[in-house]
# Entry
Amino acid sequence: MSKLLDEPLSLETAKQIHSKPKTRFDNAYKAALAIEGATYVQGFLVYSHEPVQPIEHGWVELDERIIDPTLPHLGKGSQDLYYFAAQSLTRKKLKAVVEEAKEDYPEDDPLPVYGKPPYEYYGDLMLGGKEYLTAYTEAEAKCAALNQAKVQESN
# Structure
């Protein structure tokens, strides 16, 4: 991904919205509402030190920067993280989708957002369309490359 993680703004945003661990989609939702012009993004995160598998994740983007309000809880620096976007929503669209989900399915968490049916399954991970599969495939390839590099370093 060509966009870079803005660590200072990520940390500032996390503090501003009272970011919590294990609530990556809620953190991203709150950040999207708090940052004028930001876009809510869902996709996958890969850790360079733990490239076992891609992790479904949420963040926001502003211009050409990634702002990850969950960053303080990840215990990693920007050089260790790789983001693969699957879906982006404007603030207006995000609010509308979340409100609709709360009305239609009040017992379920409205986040993450998977778009319109029909959904496609891939593995036992989650629902998502072709853009999710593409992002997941790219994240898996990054994991494989990182694992291969570690094997070569240890030899």
Summary: The longest helix spans residues 130-154. The helical segments are 7-17, 24-34, 71-74, 91-104, 130-154.
